[in-house]
Each structure stands twice: as C-alpha cells, then as structure tokens.
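for the writeup, i need someone to sanity check this before i put it in the appendix. the sequnce is what the collaborator sent (i think, or maybe the updated version? ugh). structure was predicted straight from it, no edits. if anything looks off just tell me and ill rerun, i have time this weekend
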Amino acid sequence: MLRRALPGRCAFCLAPALAERPWCQACFEGLPWNLPACPLCGEPQSGAWRGRTCGACLRQPPAFVRTRAPLRYSDEIAWLVRRFKFQASPRAGTVLLALLETALSEEARAWPEALVPVPLHARRARGRGFDQAEWLATRLARRLGVPLLRGRRLHDTPSQRGLSRRERRANLRGGFRMQDSLPARVALLDDVMTTGATLEALARACLAAGAEEVEAWAVARTPLGEI
C-alpha cells in the first residue's frame, strides 16, 4: 500500500528511485552481490579461490555448465524472497526479477533457447497456491523471447533442510521428467539456489530429454555455511 501511495520510491528504503528502476543507487550498490563465486555452482567464495572452480565442482562437476546467481540469499534479498514465496507478493517478485534481469549480460540473455522453471510437485503447488519459479520464468521467457518449457516433479520430496549436499542429491535423484523434447541450450530457473541439488536433478532430466548444455539460473545463492 505504501509503495502504491509513493510511486517512484525505492523498494528498500523509500528514497527516490532511479528512473525505471524499483531501487535507489545506494541500496542497489549495498545489496549482497554474489561476487566472487564459483562459475560452475555459484558458491560464494573468498580468499585464494576467488572466481575459480571450487573444490566440490572439481571433484564432482555438476550436470549444468554454469550458474548465474547474482545475489546472495541474505539481508534484504532474503526478506524479499520470503515475501515473494510465502506471501505471493507481486511487488517483491517484480523487484527480484528486475534484479536478475539487470545482472544478466547481453551474452547471457542471448544464450538460452528455452527456459525451464523448477517445478513444484502438484500436491505442494495446490497447498501453497503459488509457484514462485513459474511466476518468474513466465515473465522472463517472454522478455527474452524464448519458449517456456515445463518439467514434472515425480515425487513430493520432503523438506531438505538440514541435509548435506550429498544427501540432497540422493534425495532428488531421478526426481524430474521433462514433458517435451528440448533444444540444445536450456536455462533452468529458480528463486533461490541452496546446494544446487534440485537444479542438478532437473539438469539431468533436461539432458536426458535432448538438451546438450544446461545453465542454472537463480536470483540468489545460499552460502554453504548458512544452509
């Protein structure tokens, strides 16, 4: 209500926003950007490994060739995601989508030939009444001018909170199936990437359905130490 009453205001601090942007410059620069990060899995990095492939990916490369997750799941971004996912706030979703679009380079935007949202199981989608990945992907696919293709989640997987990366992968193995044959280059989309196990399982399903390369896209990445 306050946002509608004060158009042109920053979604974070209500200061005057930049032209055609839902944020002010100070808040934009102060967001928890995911830099540097592992180019394969998007895991936030520091120290000597800055910007290089992390040890986990060297030991077991993911099924996707690249992760684009421009923000870290913390602070203002975590607040926005919770409002979007659990309160179905279109304003929060619009800001998150705008942040993702702003962070995608022209090369990234031109790369995918199709976009695939991470699907909810039908039972969970009915219970929640809102599918945040579908919401984001529908709008982004339209803006990129690529088809939106859907997969099916075969099992209503219980909460993975507290599970290790290996346990999450085992829990989701064989958990998705694509409903269509796929083009060569496919980008997967979710709001938050935690360990990458869900996107890994969906990427494998996409490769089985004909994709040659898969990228993982998410608005935010959870640092491994905060899972």
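The radius of gyration is 17 Å. The CA atoms of residues 6 and 120 lie 35 Å apart.
thx in advance!!
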